[in-house]
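Quarterly update from the structural biology core.
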Amino acid sequence: MTWLAAASTTVPTESTQQAIGYPTLFVLVLLGALVPVVPTGALVSSAAVVAFHQTAPFALALVFVTASLAAFLGDATLYWLGRRGMGSKNGSRWLEAIRSRAPQERLEHAQRKLAEHDVAVLVLSRLMPAGRLPVMLACLIAKWPMRRFARGNLPACLAWVVTYQLIGILGGSLFPEPWEGVVAAVALTLVISVTPSLWRRVRAPR
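Predicted structure, tokenized:
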């Protein structure tokens, strides 16, 4: 009877986590795509850690679907808003937000890569810290239609979620407690996001 009592208390707990967790993950990743201040990579990794420790089937698959859909819709919405800003005489605050996070040097680099490798650059830009918005702005300047951008952005979002979900699975497998895995996954994602900027500062001429 003891194990029945434990099971009866465990299942509702996981059900509650899923009922709250997946919609929350969707909203935060969507907002993170629109307003690039939310650490969406850390969110996906943390959700993967929690899903790894759950007994419910398909928990990791649900994290993958939820985060991928939210990232794709967020990117598509931001690109659509950027296109509207490009066509407006006065621009838009969304277009200015993209430009403010796409320095001229990175924009020129993104434009060169986009001309050389086309859609493949979108996949790489999603995996590189601070690489998404310069490439998006390059697509806007090149007047890519919405369909072309979406076609390239879909595999980019899928690859991005897989990458950060694997980080979460790694953190979850190394530690017995979910919170320990979350801390490890968040720390690793922060290191990944900070390393490129530190490397550029080291290489920059004094």
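The radius of gyration is 19 Å.
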